[in-house]
């Protein structure tokens, strides 16, 4: 659901006037282009020293009262009671009804009931539902827990699946240009607590985020900074330019200035509002998630809420702050479910609602924690960032292929920088800061180090955008000449149903096939285009039976055909296991007449990926240093993979086992047991991804 069929309601509360806090309901039913100029209904919330006054319960004719103390509810008491609770309580429902009737009274309530009946839900079988945006312009009232709003019966508006409710300051009359779509979504996670902090319990949230991001695969690229200095954070932010800034930690007061800030590194002063604005305002994130203790809460509500307001004021499109201390397990559920919902195609408001719902049904104490996140929008939710779902037919087919399922086992490895380099090189739509596009990518390293798995990762990313993918494995059983390589590129693998091993468009190769037939028969081909399709006769290349210019003419004709085939959609071509090609054929023909022209961009937009062992790269002229008489490669990108060190074992094997063993503690026991079985007594060692198959067999035995 993208929000396109929803009817938008904006409810203004405040700013405060002499009579109190005015309430104005604006409704967009799609029939009036000037809907935002005149409210559909109005009311007033009376001013009161405790934010809001006691209110008569329409169902009992007495005041709404705190069930525990019997005191009449006011806005201040409602907020204090929410923060004092540690679990679900009947008090929350009473607070929700109290706040509902403060906001929805008189004309506003009547219009609300009419709209609820007219647009009952967004999901099938109905086609239209409601989106409610609370634009609270009175500072006193902004602090109140409006997330508890409870309407008809026990129906809580912020959990109600038939509509979606958020906070926000959306002005439809001043909508600026939509942000430029960028893919993948970049998320910077900053952890500001010290290890073992029992209040934050960041490990829960980090584990949940890693699992969610792992499942989101190419849709998201993330970076985690643990207790960085302000200088380190600023440098990382400027280089990464995240769409999402996600903070986990504490809010603290700066002793010297009295300002409230986020705690980054022990011994450093807090990262205060003014510093946050200085460091981030030149490139504001589209979304900020501030999971900081009391980042929007009493007793320092007005001051601590300024952390979230700082992001709002310097241009962040949406901010999520916690209105109380959310324990690690609940924060983990909320954050992970939010990202999962985005990955499933939800707009951000629906993603927040889904995260609330999942948090509310978690077992154990803390069931009131769903109400603590306060989400604010400065634009319509679908405008925060584009949907992450591609709907690509090619991606679906690619993920159903046997080789994808095989290499899925091997892509556990961190290799974050290498993945970014691959994606930035091969996928035209990818925006990876500090990594420029290149038409040629060379992947080198020892055998069984994960070169092919890394390349498949890149191809999966390209499949999101329906690129034409051509993967050619040249290892074979016999060494291959240059003509067999060209034919393999053109024909794919006829016996393999994989979507990345299919023939290139036959119509693009008619002229090449005709020229090839002539040249291999020892004749010069005509200069005219052939009439109709021409098939390759399959003749062999015999140097003593072809014209002297035959190899050059073959490559000229092939490049023209390849460029034609690789335009719409753009072609990503992979030549894997180059050890299967005659060295002299590669150096004499393929390098100068195919590889180098592609690298120079002469066949743009085609991208080429070469995979070769590091020991064989120099002989083929693909090493970092080229031996004469070979010329250096044109500008290109290189990724060199190495075996993993002993220090990587626990983290990487744990990542690998996450799908089978989601419980982190259980996984840790398994990893330690596997480590003892394989490396008992060894201090320093290296290992390759191929070890995973051995470990998996030990687990499943």
UniProtKB/TrEMBL annotation:
Signal peptide limits: none
InterPro entries per UniProt: CHAT_dom (IPR024983), P-loop_NTPase (IPR027417)
Domain spans labelled CHAT: 115-362
Disordered as annotated region, ranges: 524-545
Domain of life: Bacteria
Official protein name in the record: CHAT domain-containing protein
């Amino acid at each position: 659901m993208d929000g396109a069929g929803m009817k938008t309601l904006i409810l203004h509360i405040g700013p405060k006037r002499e009579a109190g806090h005015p309430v104005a309901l604006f409704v967009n039913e799609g029939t009036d282009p000037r809907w935002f100029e005149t409210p559909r209904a109005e009311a007033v919330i009376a001013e009161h020293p405790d934010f809001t006054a006691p209110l008569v319960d329409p169902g009992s004719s007495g005041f709404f009262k705190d069930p525990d103390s019997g005191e009449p509810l006011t806005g201040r008491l409602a907020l204090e009671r929410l923060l004092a609770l540690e679990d679900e309580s009947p008090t929350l429902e009473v607070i929700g009804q109290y706040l509902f009737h403060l906001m929805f009274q008189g004309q506003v309530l009547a219009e609300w009931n009419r709209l609820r009946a007219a647009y009952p839900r967004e999901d099938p079988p109905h086609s239209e539902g409601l989106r409610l945006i609370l634009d609270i312009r009175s500072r006193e009232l902004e602090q109140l827990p409006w997330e508890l709003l409870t309407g008809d019966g026990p129906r809580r508006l912020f959990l109600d699946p038939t509509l979606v409710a958020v906070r926000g300051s959306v002005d439809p009359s001043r909508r600026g240009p939509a942000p430029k779509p960028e893919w993948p979504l970049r998320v910077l996670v900053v952890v500001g607590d010290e290890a073992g902090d029992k209040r934050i319990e960041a490990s829960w949230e980090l584990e949940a985020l890693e699992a969610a991001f792992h499942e989101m695969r190419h849709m998201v690229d993330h970076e985690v900074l643990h207790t960085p200095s302000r200088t380190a954070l600023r440098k990382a932010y400027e280089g990464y330019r995240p769409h999402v800034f996600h903070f986990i930690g504490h809010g603290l007061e700066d002793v010297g200035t009295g300002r409230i800030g986020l705690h980054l590194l022990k011994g450093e002063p807090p990262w205060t509002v003014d510093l946050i604005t200085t460091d981030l305002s030149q490139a504001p994130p589209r979304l900020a998630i501030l999971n900081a203790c009391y980042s929007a809460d009493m007793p320092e509500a007005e001051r601590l809420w300024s952390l979230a307001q700082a992001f709002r004021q310097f241009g962040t499109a949406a901010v999520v702050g916690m209105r109380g201390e959310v324990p690690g397990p609940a924060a983990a559920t909320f954050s992970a479910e939010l990202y999962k919902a985005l990955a499933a195609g939800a707009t951000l408001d629906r993603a927040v609602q889904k995260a609330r719902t999942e948090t509310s049904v978690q077992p154990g104490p803390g069931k009131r924690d769903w109400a603590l996140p306060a989400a604010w929008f400065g634009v319509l939710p679908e405008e925060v960032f584009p949907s992450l779902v591609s709907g690509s037919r090619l991606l679906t087919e690619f993920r159903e292929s046997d080789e994808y399922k095989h290499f899925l086992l091997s892509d556990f490895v961190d290799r974050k920088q290498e993945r970014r380099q691959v994606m930035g090189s091969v996928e035209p739509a990818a925006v990876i800061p500090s990594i420029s596009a290149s038409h040629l990518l060379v992947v080198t390293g020892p055998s069984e180090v994960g070169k092919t798995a890394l390349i498949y990762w890149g191809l999966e990313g390209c499949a999101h955008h329906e690129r034409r993918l051509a993967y050619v494995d040249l290892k074979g059983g016999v060494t291959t000449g240059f003509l067999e390589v060209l034919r393999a590129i053109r024909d794919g693998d006829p016996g393999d149903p994989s979507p990345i091993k299919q023939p290139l468009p036959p119509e693009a190769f008619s002229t090449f096939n005709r020229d090839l037939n002539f040249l291999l028969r020892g004749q010069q081909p005509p200069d005219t285009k052939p009439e109709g399709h021409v098939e390759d006769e399959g003749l062999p290349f015999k140097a003593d039976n072809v014209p002297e210019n035959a190899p050059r003419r073959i490559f000229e004709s092939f490049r023209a055909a390849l460029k034609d085939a690789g335009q719409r959609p753009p072609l990503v071509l992979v030549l894997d296991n180059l050890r299967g090609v005659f060295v002299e054929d590669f150096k004499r023909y393929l390098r100068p007449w195919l590889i180098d022209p592609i690298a120079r961009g002469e066949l743009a937009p085609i991208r080429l990926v070469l995979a070769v062992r590091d020991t064989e790269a120099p002989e083929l002229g693909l090493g970092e240093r080229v031996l004469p008489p070979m010329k250096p490669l044109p500008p290109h990108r290189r990724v060199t993979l190495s075996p993993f060190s002993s220090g990587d074992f626990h983290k990487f094997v744990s990542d690998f086992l996450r799908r089978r063993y989601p419980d982190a503690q259980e996984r840790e026991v398994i990893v330690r047991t596997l480590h003892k079985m394989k490396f008992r007594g060894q201090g320093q060692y290296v290992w390759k991804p191929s070890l995973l198959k051995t470990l998996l067999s030990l687990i499943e035995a």
